[in-house]
Amino acid sequence: MNKVIKYVIEIIVVAVVLLAAIYGITKINTSLTRSNQKEVLITFEAQDVEEALLQKVQIGDNITDNAKTTYLGKIVALSDPYPYTDSVENYETNAYVAAQVPNRYNKDITVSVMADVTDSAIMVGETELKVGYTIPIINEKYMLSSIITHLEIKE
Fold first, then answer.
1. Domain limits of the chain?
2. How would DSSP label each residue in the chain?
């Protein structure tokens, strides 16, 4: 009877170690569990930036999520800078209006990356991508506060 209990305990220990090893491997190399990778074009709107800083942004630059240090892809397209606007109060009418902020600009930055695409989420590493999310993007030359304005999944 003691031998049977000993073997049952050994089997349980081996199963727990095996499950822990499989879990650890899939956490380290997520490509083992995520096979639905597709090319995704992410459009960021860099907001409220000086023109000199926007001139440093170039097609071909690699972009990283500053908060999670996730590689977000390579810049494939850039828009021309356009004026940054903010809501201000018009004291004569007591209404809020959009007004241009001097020397501050916005720029659309389109990035291409391979992402894990499911029915419920688009993931790049640990970063979830959704329109409206604010992501601080960095490069060795700049850091920009940006908002995701468009996602396009390539087939």
1. 1-33, 35-153
2. -HHHHHHHHHHHHHHHHHHHHHHHHHHH-GGGT---EEEEEEEEEEEEE-HHHHTT--TT-EEEETTTTEEEEEEEEEPPPEEEEEEEEETTTTEEEEEEEEEEEEEEEEEEEEEEE-SS-EEETTEE--TT-EEEEE-SS-EEEEEEEEEEE--
Chain segment 25-76, per-residue pLDDT in tens = 766 655 545 558 999 999 999 999 998 999 999 999 999 988 888 899 999 9
Q: How far is CA 136 from the centre of its chain?
A: 9
Q: For residue 95, is it left (φ>0), alpha (ψ between -120 and 50) or beta? A: beta
- pTM confidence score: 0.72
Quote the tokens at residue 152.
């396009």
What is the Cα–Cα distance from 136 to 68, expressed in whole angstroms? Answer: 10
Q: Are 144 and 55 in contact (CB under 8 A)?
A: no
